[in-house]
Amino acid sequence: MANGCEIFCEILIAILLPPLGVCLRHGCCSVEFWLCVLLTILGYIPGIIYALYVIVFLHRDEYFSEERRPLYASA
Hints:
PMP3; membrane; transmembrane helix; transmembrane
């Protein structure tokens, strides 16, 4: 399970270099990575938004335990 410092570092890297942040989480041969590269080439801000989405929201059940899950999340 990722702790707060790891997530903060991933978010910081995703803001500076969006594809690198996605690569660290999902690997460099994933669809998420290549989509982030494409969005970053088309515009830096869409690349950042997608990278943050991938890091924070995609597969969050694997990284957050039940007691840290937000109240609005369904089981």
